[in-house]
Design a protein that fits this description.
Layout: E1 3-8, H1 31-34, E2 40-44, E3 56-57, E4 63-64, H2 66-74, E5 80-88, E6 93-101, E7 104-105, E8 113-114, E9 121-123, E10 125-126, H3 128-131, E11 136-139, E12 147-150, H4 151-159, E13 165-172
Parallel strand pairs: 2-5, 7-11, 10-13
Antiparallel strand pairs: 1-12, 1-13, 3-4, 5-6, 8-9, 11-12
């Protein structure tokens, strides 16, 4: 099975300074910490002139659009989430996102290559048997913001014309 790393395409004019009101305690964000958020959480941000809301936002934490979240649930992913409203009070821009807690999996292969100093991954390689049948997951020890997704999930969201995302195929052994 093929897997892709999904994140936000930073070349676009997207919301920034997300969570400037500290509505989400990001270091404590986990399945347990999710219950401390109210049903609807308003998260302040700054919306740029001529900007748009991409379907995946990765900073400061992962936010998915309704389209991406519905497809994730359609594939039977066991994901806890909360609904979050991103809002720029100055210009009135706002959007609804889902804040999912995606499972972190220890599936990095020993074939993963690092730079000469050994502090940065140059080519990520995953072990397929450790991934199992997961639709979406994060890789334990991989510091980039974003998440891994199975090919069928990626194809489904692309058919629904998601925008503002970046895809990178990941090697699986």
């Amino acid at each position: 099975m093929k897997y892709f790393f999904l994140d936000t395409d930073e070349r676009n004019k997207i919301p920034y300074d997300i969570n400037k009101n500290c509505a989400i305690d990001i270091p404590k964000l986990a399945r347990e910490g999710l219950s401390k958020l109210s049903g609807w959480t308003i998260v302040r941000m700054v919306f740029p002139h001529e900007g748009f809301f991409p379907d995946i936002l990765c900073k400061p934490c992962l936010f998915l659009s309704q389209t991406c979240m519905e497809v994730l649930m359609m594939y039977g992913a066991d994901v806890s989430y909360k609904v979050v409203k991103l809002s720029d009070w100055e210009n009135g821009a706002n959007a609804t996102y889902f804040l999912p807690i995606i499972e972190e999996v220890d599936c990095m292969s020993k074939k993963t290559t690092y730079n000469t100093t050994g502090n940065r991954i140059e080519e990520l390689v995953l072990e397929e048997e450790k991934i199992g049948n997961r639709v979406a997951f994060k890789v334990k020890g991989y510091e980039r913001k974003g998440f891994m997704a199975r090919l069928d999930y990626v194809e489904s969201i692309l058919r629904r014309k998601v925008r503002g995302i970046r895809l990178e195929e990941v090697c699986v052994v």
